[in-house]
Amino acid sequence: EIKRTGRGNTLLFSKELVEEKERHLIIAQRLKHAVPANEMHLAFQPLVHADDFSLHSYEVLLRWDNPILGRVSPEEFIPIAEDIGEIVRIGEYVLDTALSTYTEELGRDSHVKLALNISLRQLVVPGFADFILGYLEKYGLSARSLILEVTETIFDARNQNQIIAVLNSLHAKGIEVHIDDFGTGYSSLSRLHEMPISALKIDKSFVQQIDDQRCAIIEGSVMIAERFGVHTVAEGVETVEQARLLHAIGVTYLQGYLFGKPKPHFAEVTVHSDFLLWTKDKQSRAS
Ligand code: C2E
Ligand code: MG
Ligand code: MG
Ligand code: MG
């Protein structure tokens, strides 16, 4: 296969393509042994209320360290795991380990929620709802402890009715469903009103370099969410200025390095000193 991007570059690019395919193959092969070989672990990142930066939930993020490949980003290996179907077994590891860690570190009575990323491929496995409920039962956890983050790909899937039914049965038990990476999928949202969604999660690409255009997309997302009676989450918040702007726009929850990076434990929210100034400011303006 040859990718033509300009005179003279043809050979170089085709070599890169081959290398990319080889890496893809190696990852696919090694992924099958990653869980049994103990190469995976979880990281937890806090989400806070935009009003007072108090803790709302933790998102569970998968990490993979392979002896040969080193640290591989989930951005790279998750799509491959989805391709080869391995995501189903990996997803079970994530669910089991996340709930076990939650029970040990936060306890069954905690009101902090846990947000899991779920691939479309997992969602359409027959019995998915019972699978999730079974693990909640295993650890004696309430369905209210759980948030499932699914991407806009659910709107493009062929089996819409099946997806809506699965999400409805989970929602009926008290599990929240959030739409991840909102705004990046170019999806038809025509059946959004049929989905039991509790929040739209605005992708970090809109948050990180906020300009007029990206700001308009965030405002538009908040407006859509409000019309549907659901919350919004902004991910990738790194600065107090971004947090301030997102709060002013009306985003409900914030997530990003400002409040804490993904850590192997349920680390406390890092309270930024600028934030204290900001709340004082708000209080004095309000009184
Ligand atoms: P996502 O679900 O949209 O997760 C948010 C990503 O943004 C995470 O990347 C997180 O580490 C990163 N992030 C959070 N705050 C900041 C910030 O302030 N600045 C910057 N630069 N980045 C920030 P990560 O951990 O590399 O995960 C990438 C993607 O991989 C996730 O995107 C999700 O789609 C997927 N993923 C991760 N774990 C799982 C999993 O267990 N199952 C499935 N199906 N997908 C997963
Ligand atoms: Mg997510
Ligand atoms: Mg996201
Ligand atoms: Mg994202």
TrEMBL record:
Q: What superkingdom heads the lineage?
A: Bacteria
User: Residue ranges of the EAL domain?
Assistant: 24-276
Q: Any idea what this protein is called?
A: Diguanylate cyclase
- What stretch of the whole protein does this chain cover? 411 to 697 of 697
